[in-house]
Amino acid sequence: MTDTTVVWNDALLGYDMGEHPLNPVRVELTMALAGELGVLDRPGVRLQAPKPADEAALLRVHTLEYLDAIRHATTGTHDHGLNTPDNPVFPHMHDASALVAGASLAAAEAVWRGETTRAVSISGGLHHAMPDRASGFCVYNDPAVAIARLLDLGAERIGYVDVDVHHGDGVQEIFYDDPRVMTISLHETPLALFPGTGYPAETGGPGAEGTAINVALPPGTGDAGWLRAFHAIVPSALRTFRPQVLVTQCGADGHRLDPLADLRLTVDGQRATYLALRDLAEELCGGRWVALGGGGYALVEAVPRAWTHLLAVVTGEPLDPALPIPQSWRALAADRCPDRRSADLMTDGVDPVYHPWTPGFDAPDAIDRSILATRRAVFPLLGLDPKDPRD
Q1: CA 134, CA 210: separation in Å to the nearest integer?
Q2: What is the pTM of this model?
Q3: pLDDT at 362
Q4: Which parts of the chain sit beneath pLDDT 70?
Q5: Is 154 left (phi over 0), alpha (psi -120 to 50) or beta?
Q6: In the chain, what are the domains?
Q7: What is the predicted pLDDT for the residue at 116?
Q8: Residue 363 confidence (pLDDT)
Q9: What is the sign, positive or negative, of the torsion defined by CA atoms of 189, 192, 255, 143?
């Protein structure tokens, strides 16, 4: 058994919507930076080429009508969410989308079957796709495809944690009535940001109450507030649920330089989040962790650094935040994105400390109010006390 499987080859760059915010260069530069820093050459790391998800796997979460629409879509197609500014039709769309789904599927299978302890698919994390429509740059919902395969292989409890700046609405929708899947999403408030869902009151359907958890954070939330919210909600909920495997969507678009959102995280805060997710996988799941990418639109400035930290955490020792970025990688980034400037170091120069949550009823700030709203909505359903910071 290997320690970590990284599912990757250059064919995954074919998920390319053209002149569009979701540029595959973010994935190319991530894998190049991780390679330059030796992360992919560590002992116990196996690189695995993906295969496309087949129709049966896609039909576990999508309708046949939708699959047929994707296969035959043209620039004149205007149903199923296609040919909008968010979701343009692009060449070989079905093949490229099925390959991304297949990469996440392979990661999940390798972990569940005991071939590896952890697995990562940086190209994955397309969490907005719905059963019958494209949404939010996402054609096929690869996290849901992977989770469905885990269920089919015998998993009884799967924890899904989504730290993208946008609500993980597609995954929540697909498993909203399934008590075997707990979805937890930390995101910017739907009052300010797409997709307009992810309120604390969304707690799971009949028979699955308490298995959908949403932490809607105010614009401007930085590392300290984000980490306070994460630690006030996620560990207690997962410890109660006792997942057998942890699946995470690690969108990097909460970064303060991201052009499409309004949170203020640094790569240091994101790195701290990945370390917390690793620790929860170790504590609760015997280390079994499937890590996926997601959104991220600061293509040079933030995403490659954040996801290289993720790859380092998944594959073993975290990287020193003060590590210099190789000049060869900076030259590659300048060639691919000449209008953007890369950072010099793997850090934003921030120590992401936070103060643990306490009820703070006298003068709670907006972040504390968000935390308390989520705890009040869902903690009683889990048998936890929303006012007890020990829960």
Answers
A1: 27
A2: 0.97
A3: 54
A4: 1-2, 360-363
A5: left
A6: 2-382 (3.40.800.20)
A7: 97
A8: 53
A9: positive
5-18 residue pLDDT tens:
999 999 999 999 99
Residues 9 and 51: their CA atoms lie apart, in Å, by: 10
Which residues are known catalytic residues? 128
- The answer to whether residues 193 and 165 touch, using CB atoms and an 8 Å cutoff, is yes
Q: Is 168 helix (H, G, I), strand (E, B) or coil?
A: coil
Answer positive or negative: Cα dihedral of 263, 139, 50, 169.
positive
Strands 181-188 and 158-162, how do they pair? parallel
Nearest 5°: the CA angle 166, 285, 224 is 40
| Residue 274 near residue 311, CB atoms below 8 Å | no
Instruction: From 168, 164, 185, 178, select the one nearest 229 (Cα to Cα).
Output: 185
Judge contact between 128 and 164, C-beta under 8 A: no
pLDDT of residue 2: 67
Taking alpha carbons only, the member of 211, 351, 297 closest to residue 17 is: 297
**What was the pLDDT predicted at 78?**
83
Provide the H-helix boundaries in 248-365. Answer: 267-285, 303-315, 327-336
Residue 128 · residue 138 · CB < 8 Å: yes
Radius of gyration of the chain measured on its C-alpha atoms: 19
What tokens does 260 get? 């499409």
DSSP string, 220-235: T-BHHHHHHHHHHHHH
| DSSP for residue 164 | S
pLDDT (tens digit, 9 = 90+) per residue, 82-131? 999 999 999 999 999 999 999 999 999 999 999 999 999 999 999 999 99
Which of 253, 256, 339 has its CA nearest to residue 297?
A: 253
